[in-house]
Amino acid sequence: MEPIITARRTEDIALDLLKFIASTANVTRASSSSTGFAAPSSAKPEDQVAHLLELYARCKQAVEAK
User: Fold this and answer.
1) Does 34 map to a domain?
2) 1-52: per-residue pLDDT in tens?
3) Burial readout 36-65 (b: 16 or more C-beta within 10 A, e: otherwise)
4) For residue 2, what pLDDT is reported?
5) Domain tally for the chain?
6) What is the C-alpha separation between 49 and 28, in angstroms, rounded?
7) CA angle, corner 43, sides to 35 and 32, nearest 5?
8) DSSP 8-state class, residue 25
9) What is the rounded CA–CA span in Å between residue 21 and residue 54?
């Protein structure tokens, strides 16, 4: 019996890439310095969502370009 090989959709790969970049760059967390002081976030939630959607689009373009 041969193994079934399935290709992942580019959308799924782009989403995984987005998750990796966001967690590595601390995009989804409140900013704080090593002193424990957390600066207030000046970005509105709508702006943060817009940035994440833009990042997802860029990740998808990168995956499709390979």
Assistant:
1) no
2) 666 666 788 999 999 999 999 888 876 555 555 555 454 556 788 988 899 9
3) eeeeeeeeeeeeeeeeeeebbeebbeebee
4) 66
5) 1
6) 10
7) 10
8) T
9) 13
Query: Quick one: pLDDT at residue 31?
Result: 52
- In this structure, is residue 36 part of a structural domain? no
Q: Structure tokens of 30?
A: 């409140």
First to last CA, the chain: 31
Establish if 54 belongs to a structural domain: yes
Check if the beta carbon of residue 38 is closer than 8 Å to that of residue 32.
yes
The pLDDT value given to residue 17: 93
**Structural domain boundaries, residue 19:** 7-27+44-66
| Domain presence at residue 56 | yes
